[in-house]
Amino acid sequence: MSRHTELLTDSTLARLRDAAQRAAGHSYSPYSRFPVGAAVLGANGKVYSGCNVENASFGLTQCAERAALTAAIADGAAAGSLQALLIYTPGNTAHPPCGACRQVMRELMAAAGTVASCCDTTELKCWSHAEHLPDPFLPEDLPEAARAPKADKS
Ligand SMILES: [Zn+2]
Fold first, then answer.
1. What's 71's domain CATH number?
2. Residue 151 lies inside a defined structural domain of this protein
């Protein structure tokens, strides 16, 4: 187990995998035929999931990772509080998240959070934010007047 999997105990990993796999089963991916599910662990221990939802316009396709993060925020999770995100794709390869999702993960997840990916084998890939998005664009990069007020949620 790598240092990035410290948050992912066997029971947490099993909960996230179950949720991500279930979400992948609901994927709307008639164009790519590449279903993806993702599950996020909140600071409160809750698990939020999402799947990819494609669109005939292609550009409006929503990734599973961002769908899961959106579900967490919609439930009241504070930006920066999400601890771990697990991606599941059916098949024999654990795929990394796309660049757009990495940017959103970095802003919404805890700075020390873990991102992982699994598939139908025992393969488990794990990344820190620094590994998969070095030098991210963060809220601190915006002029102070343009920054969102600090959330008062836990
Ligand atoms: Zn993505």
1. 3.40.140.10
2. no
* Domain of 46, in residue numbers: 3-128
CB 45 within 8 A of CB 80: no
Residues with CB under 5 A from ligand 1 (ion): 63, 98, 101
Is 65 in the active site?
A: yes
Total domains present in the chain: 1
Torsion of CA 116, 69, 53, 103, to 10 degrees: -70
Whether 114 has a pLDDT exceeding 90, the answer reads yes
Tell me: the pLDDT tens digits for 32-74?
999 999 999 999 999 999 999 999 998 999 999 999 999 999 9
